[in-house]
Amino acid sequence: MLKHNPNTTIVRRAAAIGAALALALVAGCGTTTDGGSDAGSGASVEEGFTVGLLLPESKTARYEKFDKPYFEEALKEECPKCKVSYQNADQDTGKQQSQAEAMLTEGIDVMVLDAVDTEAAGAVVKQSKSQDVPVVAYDRLAQGGVDYYVSFDNKNVGKVQGESLVEALEKEGGDKGEIVMINGSPTDPNAADFKAGAHEVLDGAVKIGAEYDTPDWSPDKAQQQMEQAITSVGADKISGVYSANDGMASGVIAALKSAGVDDLPPITGQDAELAGIQRIISGEQYMTVYKAIKPEAEIAAKMAVAAATGEKFDGEGATEIEDPDGNKVASVLLDPVPVTADDIEETVIADGFYTVEEVCTGDFADKGFCKEATGDK
């Protein structure tokens, strides 16, 4: 059974990786098979250059609130004269392709791409490379032969979620019913990894009564799927819900409440969204997965500078993976951290992801963690 270390080792480790990568940047030429890029070698940190940042959607709070500002801040540290050209695709593959084409026409020197659809993004990657613009895959591994990739160990995310769900069921006296699985978007390979990791833990340990893949990571569609599960399985027979992220967990909870379920079963999540943390405090959601976005964004900025200037890096945590097209990609994969009601102080609060004041608002101030944290004030 996975146990969370109250010391937030992932954040320290990720910061160490970022520092190691910064120290390890060395001049030279390379390709996607040796951890560098020939494309973009005309750019320089001294003169500055333009980085195109394309993020996939805004339904998940993390992208606008954390990823974008963290990346911009990190790039400013690495390259004070560099500029960011930013677009969000709102979960529209065609829109993201048009945004990428506009950036290439504009004259960006490197692209940082979090793809809506990683297979479809292969065309964007190939077009970029044909114009000598290197590509850093951010959070999701786009096809087409990107230069660098930074994300989390996505299969391990699913394992962490599955282990936490099994742990919750054991606390409640063991399996008393069936599990519903609300997986992520079928066009997101990360969702497939989460799903695979969860199945490694759940298969054989629990009975899965219903399972769905959720287009666009949509909370509304997750709610509809949960309503279908309640009809097919029976509300009183659902002992737990695997929800791949916090947004969809909100839809799951809404469906259960509408069905008259007052004593909610343990429900998983991911992304440590503020609303998710607050649901954990109130007891509506059992856990979330905290992924330290700041170190991920910092590493992406270092990769972007390396790719644009024709440099390469190596260091602690750096590895090489193979994309679906058989291309070798220099990568850094960070570790996820599970967060239950017992871990809020030592994770998202200790790391400054949220403050107590942000979390403990309104009715939440008198519940669980918040009652203890604000009791002496």
Record keyword descriptors for this entry:
377 residues, alpha/beta, Rossmann fold, seven-stranded mixed sheet, three-stranded parallel sheet
Give a brief outline of the structure.
The protein has 377 residues and is an alpha/beta fold. The chain has 13 helices and twelve strands. GO terms for molecular function: carbohydrate binding.
Beta-strand proportion: 15-25%
Number of strands: 12
Per DSSP, the total helix count is: 13
Overall tally of domains: 2
Query: Roughly how much helix do the residues carry, as a percent range?
Result: 40-55%
| Integer-rounded radius of gyration | 21 Å
How far apart lie the N and C ends? 37 Å
Name of the CATH architecture of the largest domain: 3-Layer(aba) Sandwich
Mean pLDDT: 89
CATH superfamily of the largest domain: Response regulator
CATH topology of the largest domain: Rossmann fold
Low-confidence stretches: 1-35
- From the spread of the alpha carbons, the general shape counts as globular
Question: CATH class of the largest domain, please?
Answer: Alpha Beta
Strand order of the largest sheet: 2-1-3-4-5-11-10
> What would you call the structural class?
alpha/beta
Give the biggest sheet: 7 strands, mixed
Domain Periplasmic binding protein: 52-312
Signal peptide: 1-29
Keywords: Signal
Organism: Murinocardiopsis flavida
